[in-house]
Design brief:
By secondary structure, this protein is α/β, with parallel strands linked by helices. It contains twelve helices and 24 strands. The protein is 29% helix and 27% strand. The protein is globular, with a radius of gyration of 22 Å. It binds flavin-adenine dinucleotide.
C-alpha cells in the first residue's frame, strides 16, 4: 500500500498498471471505516493490484480534475484508464472485491479466494451496531464480566460521530463535538475489554440460531443478540439522486461541508437535522438555499431563530426536489412548488439532504415483529419477539430518538441480559 501526492499521480496511477486509488479526508468517519478494509484487501490482492491512497484536502486540484466530490471515493484504473464503478460514502468490502475481481482473470480470482480461511468464534452476547445504544450495552455487559462482541459495518460511534456538535448530552457544560463524544464512549467500552469487530460486512444474521456471518467467511456465535443498528437517512427519490450520491449529493455535513468554502449549496429538509446542519454548512458555504416541503420549518424554535437570522440562508417553502442533474462542476436541483406545480432550476456547487431516517432492519426484517413504520417492537426490558434477542436505540419502536434514550435502552437490555445469564 502506498500514499502518494498529486505530483506522483501520473507515474503511480496512470502508468501504474492495475491500481485502486483511495481519496480520503481527515475527520471523515466513512474514510476511517474504509481504512482497515483497504489495508486488509491490499494483503489479499496486493500482488495483482496496486493499492494507493491520496489525501483529498492536500490534492484539491487533482480531485476537482477527476470530479471527486466526496470522501472517501475509490477509483479503479487499468493501464491509465478508469475502469469499474466509482465507490463512495460508506463503502462495503464486497463492493470493492466485486470491482477488483472484475479487473483480474477468473483463474487469478479463484486463487485469491482460495487463500481465505473460514473461521468460527463464540461469545455470550453479540451486539450488532456500535452507536450509543450498542456501546452502552457493551459497557454494562463487560462490567458484569459477560463475554461480548460488538459488530459494526462502520467504525464505532454511530450517528453521533457524524454530528458536528452535541449540546444536550448530560455531564458536559459546553457543547461537545459529536466525534469526541462517540470516541470517548467507544474507548470506555473498549478499555473495559469488549471485543470489537468493526468496519466489516455483515453477510448474514440468523436470529434463531444466534449466529452472525461477517465478511462472508467468519461466523460469530452467541447465547444472546442485541440489535442496535440504528437508522439511515431517507432518500428523496428524485431523479438522479442515486447516481449523484457521493458525487455532489451528500448526507453528512461533518464529512463534506468543508469542501464548499465560498461555494453555493442547496439543502433539502426542514427538521432539526436539516436546520442545525445548515447552520454548520454556512461556516464554509457563501450561500445556502434551504428547500422545505411544508409552509413552516419543523425544527425546534431555537434552531429556527438562528437560521432565520443567518444572512447566508434563504428558504424556499412548499417546494420538493424532482431531479438532480450534473452540468459540469454544478448540480442543478429541479424543484416543484407543491401547490402551483411550477418547476424551477437551482444551480449550486453541491446538495445536502436531511429528510429523516429509516430503521436498519434489512437483515432481519422477516423474522422479527416490527411496527407499521418498520421499527422493532420490544418489551420494557428491550426483548424482541424472538427469545434471547434484544433491541435498543433508534431501531426500536418508540417516540423519542436521542443519544440519551439510546444509552438508556442499552443499559436496560444489558442489565436484563446480565440477570438472565447469572
Ligand atoms: C445529524 C444528526 C444530529 C443529531 N444530533 C443529536 C443531538 O444533538 N443530540 C441527541 O441526543 N441526538 C442527536 N441525534 C440522534 C442520535 O444521533 C441518535 O439518537 C443516536 O445516535 C442513536 O443511537 P443508536 O446506537 O441507536 O444508533 P446509531 O447511532 O445510528 O448507531 C447504529 C450503528 O449500527 C451500525 N449498523 C447499521 N447496520 C448494521 C448492521 N447490519 N450490522 C451491524 N451494524 C450496523 C451503524 O454503522 C452504526 O454505527 C442526531 C442525529 C443526526 C442524524
Amino acid at each position: 500500500m502506498k500514499e502518494i501526492n498529486s505530483s506522483e499521480f501520473e507515474n503511480e496511477v496512470l502508468k501504474g498498471g492495475k491500481v485502486i486509488l483511495d481519496f480520503y479526508s481527515t475527520e471523515c468517519p466513512p474514510c476511517e471505516a474504509l481504512a482497515s478494509k483497504f489495508e486488509d484487501l491490499s494483503k489479499l490482492y496486493g500482488n495483482d493490484v496496486k493499492f494507493v491512497k491520496i489525501f483529498r484536502q492536500g490534492s484539491r486540484d487533482l480531485s476537482d480534475k477527476l470530479m471527486v466530490k466526496s470522501s472517501p471515493t475509490l477509483l479503479f484504473f487499468d493501464n491509465g484508464k478508469e475502469v469499474a464503478e466509482r465507490l463512495g460514502g460508506g463503502i462495503k468490502r464486497i463492493d470493492i472485491i466485486r470491482n477488483l475481481d472484475s479487473m483480474l482473470p477468473s483463474e487469478r480470482v479463484k486463487d485469491i479466494k482460495s487463500r481465505i480461511k473460514p473461521s468460527v468464534s463464540e461469545f455470550d452476547v453479540i451486539i450488532l451496531g456500535a452507536g450509543p445504544g450498542g456501546l452502552t450495552a457493551g459497557l454494562y455487559l463487560c462490567q458484569s464480566k459477560i463475554n461480548s462482541v460488538l459488530i459494526d459495518i462502520a467504525l464505532p460511534g454511530g450517528q453521533v460521530s457524524t454530528t458536528h456538535e452535541v449540546s444536550n448530552y448530560p455531564g458536559f457544560i459546553d457543547p461537545q463535538p459529536g466525534y469526541m463524544l462517540s470516541h470517548n464512549m467507544s474507548e470506555q467500552t473498549k478499555l473495559c475489554g469488549t471485543i470489537y469487530k468493526v468496519a466489516v460486512d455483515v453477510t448474514r444474521v440468523d436470529l434463531e440460531k444466534k449466529e452472525v456471518v461477517i465478511d462472508e467467511y467468519e461466523t460469530v456465535k452467541a447465547k444472546k443478540i442485541v440489535i442496535a443498528t440504528g437508522t439511515t437517512p431517507n432518500l428523496t427519490g428524485a431523479d438522479g439522486e442515486k447516481e449523484l450520491k457521493g458525487k455532489g449529493i451528500s448526507y453528512c455535513a461533518t464529512c463534506d461541508a468543508k469542501y464548499f468554502n465560498d461555494k453555493e449549496v442547496v439543502v433539502i429538509g426542514g427538521g432539526n437535522s436539516a436546520v442545525e446542519e445548515s447552520e454548520y454548512i454556512t461556516r464554509f458555504a457563501s450561500k445556502l438555499t434551504l428547500i422545505h416541503q411544508f409552509d413552516k420549518l419543523t425544527a425546534n424554535k431555537q434552531a429556527q431563530d438562528k437560521i432565520f437570522k443567518n444572512p447566508k440562508v434563504s428558504i424556499l417553502f412548499e417546494n420538493e426536489p424532482r431531479a438532480f442533474i450534473r452540468e459540469g462542476d454544478k448540480i442543478i436541483t429541479e424543484i416543484e412548488d407543491v401547490k402551483t406545480k411550477k418547476r424551477q432550476k437551482l444551480v449550486s456547487d453541491g446538495v445536502f439532504i436531511f429528510i429523516g431516517m429509516k430503521p436498519n432492519v434489512d437483515l432481519f426484517r422477516n423474522s422479527l415483529e416490527l411496527d407499521s413504520w418498520g421499527y422493532i417492537k420490544t418489551d420494557q426490558d428491550m426483548r424482541t419477539s424472538i427469545p434471547d434477542v434484544f433491541a435498543v436505540g433508534d431501531v426500536i419502536s418508540k417516540k423519542y430518538r436521542q443519544i440519551t434514550t439510546a444509552v438508556a435502552d442499552g443499559t436496560i437490555a444489558a442489565m436484563a441480559i446480565a440477570k438472565e445469564l447469572d
